[in-house]
Amino acid sequence: MDNRAPRPASGTQWTISADGHEAVVVEVGGGLRSYRHDGVDYVDGYEADEICPGSAGQVLAPWPNRIRDGAYTFGERSLQLTLTDPTRNNAMHGLVNWVRWDLVEQSADAVTVGYDLPATLGYPWPLRLRTRWSVGADGLRVEHEATNVGAEAAPYGFSAHPYLRLPGVPVGEVSLRVPGRNRLLLDGRLLPIGGTAVAGTEYDFTEPRPIGDAVLDVTFGDVARDADGGSAVTLAALDGSAALRVWADREFGWWQVFTGDTLTGERHRRSVAVEPMTCPPDAFRSGKDVITLEPGVTWRGTWGLRPGT
Questions:
Q1: Which residues contact 305 (CB under 8 A, 6 or more apart)?
Q2: Is residue 266 helix, strand or coil?
Q3: Are the C-beta atoms of residues 176 and 165 closer than 8 Å to each other?
Q4: Which residues fall within 8 angstroms of residue 87, CB to CB, at 6 or more apart?
Q5: Is the bond leading into 167 cis (omega within 30 degrees of zero)?
Q6: Mean pLDDT of 151-168
Q7: Fewer CB near the last or first residue (10 Å), C or N of the chain?
């Protein structure tokens, strides 16, 4: 191997395929760069040599979204995280979206990547993280694990951040269904200050309807669950020509939906980020749905994408 050869900005690329489904997982962030079915792209990804834009496809742990001032308490400790959203003075999207993940196992239709998160001053709990990406007849399946390998209980939250699109369908013409019966109210720093029911409002997508001109960067909660305890968001073309189901198991009780209005250039309002989350924004401060990982305990959560009408 020629160590002088330039490496792609997103690092090593792992391609998996089966039954007409293909996905590319990347070393930097351990996330999803692309996903297609029968040659049609359903993920709005990026080029191998492009720095990941807008958190596209990233894995967000040990917390999703934002923490106000990066400051929180857990047990007897008061802790301060690095402010990675400096314009709003927040800590954003966890600690692993820019690190290099290692290959653990690979086959034609699946790849497992891992990262051992060391204890730091802002988050003094070591974690072992693993993600298994696989494709098959039912689409893309993603299985996440987080194990507390330290000696003390740790707070934990998780989300994934795929941007989704339907072939040839502008965002405004996508019919969206979100099973959240409540949405968070946000301040100017995009941090929650309360919640309200969506029924009868412009944010009610509990039944499918076009996105239209709606500007969404919304956290939906009070999720209506399926019989198995999970839930799903669906996107569909108005003429019925294409659809995509984003599903998540019972570990995920929140959905974030973002129509990309603050993105610049070609990515502006080109696709919809649909993020299954285990907890809401600022959860390390509010305590809402924060997972307490005891020493030696492993959390597991699964979500996926399923194209089809």
A1: 35, 42, 43, 139, 140, 162, 164, 244, 245, 246, 247
A2: helix
A3: no
A4: none
A5: no
A6: 97
A7: N
- Tell me which amino acid residue 217 is: D
Element (H, E) at 150: none
Determine the residue type at 16.
Answer: I
Task: Specify the pTM.
Answer: 0.95
What's the rounded mean pLDDT across residues 90-108? 98
DSSP 67: E
Beta-bridge mates of residue 301: 144
* Assigned CATH topology for domain 13-307: Beta-galactosidase; Chain A, domain 5 (2.70.98)
Secondary structure of residue 257 in the 3-state scheme: strand
Quote the longest CA-to-CA distance of the chain.
Answer: 61
Q: Where are the domains of the chain?
A: 13-307
What residue has token string 């993920």?
A: 43
**3-state secondary structure at position 285:** helix
- What average pLDDT score do residues 193-198 get? 98
Provide the 3-class DSSP secondary structure of residue 143.
Answer: strand
Token pair of 96 as six digits:
């692993």
Residue 4 reports pLDDT greater than 90: no
